[in-house]
Amino acid sequence: MTSASPDISIVLPVYNEEKNIPELFQSLLPVLDDLKRSFEIIVVDDGSLDKSMERLGEIAEKRPEVQVIEFRHNRGQTAAIQAGIDYCRGDIIITSDSDLQNDPSDIPRLLAKLDEGYDLVSGWRQNRKDARIRRTLVSRVANWFISRMSGLHLRDYGCTLKAYRREAVSGTHRLYGEMHRFIPIYASWVGAKITEIEVEHHARRHGHSNYGLERVIKVVLDLFVVLFIQKYFEKPIYIFGGFGIASTLIGILCFIYMLYLKLFEGISMISTPLPLASSMFILIGFICLLLGLLAEIMIRIYYESQNLRTYDIKSYLNKPDQD
């Protein structure tokens, strides 16, 4: 490997794909060679239990552009993609699945779209070759929900085939859980110009999918985390405090109604659930307010201990020289 940074970095997460790996590189390498641009391929083996590492080692021995990172045990697709982004060096980063369902021939089209001035190009599997109900329908509902909640309208958040300019992802948060699909949302926060193009999608030839319907629940929960970070990360007191104030007000109203029933209706306080409801809502309100204050302290420690800023500068004209 040369010390110069390549133009393009391909990031491939792999998990138990020993039968797909030879065919994948037979189709991928000619496409990259024809680009006439320097490239590297970062393959992250996510703790495969089959002979995937052996197949990857054979290819890496012949092609120095292929770098292989092996996890000690399975950490998930998001962790594998994050590792690939951490260790790649290209100005353009392209992520793709390694199960042959994404088509390497779409890579030049992604790059051409980036050349039009976009910072992130997302693939859209319009004609998916997956189970119609279990995968395709659920995916469409999930994409609609994510688009409505996030405000960034993409038709296929789940497609791994995406192209990024490095600056579009360098300022994003670390990826956890199933959050790799939310990279476009993170990129939109830093002003990235985002678009979507149709890409090919093939039926799986070998093996079986490692993902089931339980992944939908994880995605929804991760979406709530992303939305919380987007809206309240810098001022968590707004959500904790807002909920706390609302809960306290409900408790006070319960208490006032309880007094009204006692004084004007002659109904004993202990004959209704209002004393318990009033004390519970007021207690929850104070706890939420305290949690909000604690979260505010933690956010300040997060920024100030690392000398981070709460803003991103795109350009600076006539910047004076500093000593």
Features:
Spore Coat Polysaccharide Biosynthesis Protein SpsA, Chain A; 323 residues; 11% strand; 2 domains; seven-stranded mixed beta sheet; elongated; alpha/beta
In short:
The protein is an alpha/beta fold and 323 residues long. It folds into 2 domains: 8-231, Spore Coat Polysaccharide Biosynthesis Protein SpsA, Chain A (Alpha-Beta Complex), CATH 3.90.550; 237-305.
Structural class determined from secondary elements: alpha/beta
Strand order of the largest sheet: 3-2-1-4-6-5-7
Q: CATH H-level name of the largest domain... which superfamily? A: Spore Coat Polysaccharide Biosynthesis Protein SpsA, Chain A
**Spans of 5+ residues with little confidence (pLDDT < 50)?**
none
- Portion in strands: 5-15%
CATH topology of the largest domain: Spore Coat Polysaccharide Biosynthesis Protein SpsA, Chain A
> What is the terminal-to-terminal distance?
38 Å
Describe the biggest sheet? 7 strands, mixed
> What is the averaged pLDDT score?
87
What is the CATH architecture assignment of the largest domain?
A: Alpha-Beta Complex
The general outline is elongated
The number of distinct β-strands equals 7
Q: How many helical stretches? A: 10
User: Any idea of the CATH class of the largest domain?
Assistant: Alpha Beta
Portion of residues within helices: 40-55%
What's the structural blueprint in terms of helices and strands?
Blueprint: E1 8-14, H1 21-34, E2 39-45, H2 52-62, E3 66-70, H3 77-87, E4 92-95, H4 107-114, E5 120-124, H5 132-150, E6 162-165, H6 166-170, H7 183-189, E7 194-198, H8 214-232, H9 237-265, H10 274-305
Parallel strand pairs: 1-2, 1-4, 2-3, 5-7
Antiparallel strand pairs: 4-6, 5-6
Helix pairs in contact: 5-8, 9-10
